[in-house]
Amino acid sequence: MSHGDETAPFFGFLGAAAALVFSCMGAAYGTAKSGVGVASMGVMRPELVMKSIVPVVMAGVLGIYGLIIAVIISTGINPKAKPYYLFDGYAHLSSGLACGLAGLSAGMAIGVVGDAGVRYISPSSNIYVVVFAHVVNLLIDCGLLEWIDRIK
């Protein structure tokens, strides 16, 4: 019985790592950048600190999305149970990169908009842009889940 290509799991695990690393980088950047805005809001208007914490929480969730995709990808890699070919490895690599880079860009968007919003504008007026960046990342991840499920 053929177990597929020997190098294919490397690409699959590379995709899982890319999903996790890039999503967590976006989450860290978004949290740090928004946290600076929350700190300045605490000095200027302390009564609005709890309203301005939303971008920090939303940026932190991006890392969890990357973790979920990484776990799904890595559990799909078992060359002993079923053959794992280069197509599977490349598909997992591309889906991991798509998830990770979407998380990175969404984290950057949430960080920049969250920081500027809580510093200069009332926190309720810019929340739509932050939610939009988060929803776009979530839709990409849901599409990736469907795509990963199709190649199994």
Automatic annotation (TrEMBL):
GO terms for molecular function: proton-transporting ATPase activity, rotational mechanism. The chain crosses the membrane at residues 12-32, 53-77, 89-114, 126-148. One of its GO terms (cellular component) is proton-transporting V-type ATPase, V0 domain. The keyword Ion transport applies. Keywords: Ion transport, Membrane, Transmembrane, Transmembrane helix, Transport. CDD domains: ATP-synt_Vo_c_ATP6C_rpt1. Residues 14-73 form the V-ATPase proteolipid subunit C-like domain. Belongs to the V-ATPase proteolipid subunit family. This is V-ATPase proteolipid subunit C-like domain-containing protein. It comes from Carya illinoinensis.
